[in-house]
Structure formats: C-alpha cells, structure tokens
Amino acid sequence: MAAACVDRPVEQGGGPIEGIARDDIFVLVMHVDRASYEASEPISAGAALTYVGPAPAIDARGSGSGPILFSIEQLDGPLDMGITATGDCATHPFVRDVAQTRQFVKSAAFDPEDPADAFWPAYLADPLLRLPPGDWRLTASIELAIGDCGDPWHRLEAAAEVMVQP
Question: 113, 110, 119, 115: which is closest to 82 by C-alpha?
C-alpha cells in the first residue's frame, strides 16, 4: 500500500471548499462550491484526480465504478454511506499532469426493511445531491493499482465538510 499525505480542507474566501490528498503518484482533490447550503438546495460537489508520477502515461486498475468514488457521512447524526462500487478490475488510463474530473455520484446499499435505512430510497431517487439539515462530510476516494489488480494499491481520501441549514 502506498503512503498518503492528507491536507486539511481549505475554505477560500467564503467560496469553494477543497480537501486534498496526495502520494507519490496521485493528487486527489475533493471540492464543494461553498460551505453552507439550505436543505432544499442542490449541493455542487465533485473531485479531480491527477497522475503526477514519473512516466508520461500509465494504466491504473480498480473498480469499474470509476477511478474516483464517493461517500457521505452526517457528522452530527446517524447517516453514513460508505463507498459502494463494483469489485471488478477495470483499466483507467492516466496521462501525467492531466486531471480527470467527476461530479459527485450517489451510491448506496441499504436494507429496505430496516427503518434506520428509510432515508436512502428518497436520497437515491433525487437526481441532485440534497441532504437534510446537519453537518456533512463528502469524501472522494481512490483505490488503484499500477499494473495489475494484485499489485500494491494507492489509496487516498480527500474530504470537504458542508453545513446544511433547515
């Protein structure tokens, strides 16, 4: 496994929030347009992944769900949806210093019979990212191998926190 350095999220003049994680091969940036939203407002979030290694281009391997995966966690409440992704070994080509971007993609695995999971069907039915009031952490993650899926993994997480007002 590759070691990673994680920088704290930075708010830039009341505007965008960014969380940055890096290792010797990749830089992952999670961004959210602003730190505060109303409960009915869609949240604009996404991530950028840049290969910064020595070769001009590489093929990385990981989930076919994409090289960048997302999760959300309610910091002041019970809602927490980790990453859901396919377990295949897809190829993701990278060119040095060229960022690959992805808007926040919802995913969830839940038990429809569990009352604690009642939030997730409505969350997934809305094509936009809207969250109930609270403090939230949105995280972009990668788990990629350079070469084959059995090779050492590069694992990074970059997060940004937002507050959703009632």
Answer: 110
Which three-class secondary structure string do you get for 12-80?
A: CCCCCEEEEEECCCEEEEEEECCCEEECCCCCCEEEEEEECCCCCEEEEEECCCCCCEEEEEECCCCCE
Name the residue among 7, 161, 156 with its Cα closest to residue 73.
161
Split into its structural domains, the chain has a count of: 1
pLDDT tens sequence across 65-107: 999 999 999 999 988 888 888 889 999 999 999 999 999 998 8
pLDDT tens sequence across 33-55: 999 999 989 999 999 999 999 99
What is the spatial distance between Cα 113 and Cα 41, in angstroms, rounded to a whole number?
29
Q: Both tokens of residue 48?
A: 């950028």
Q: Which domain holds residue 89?
A: 5-165
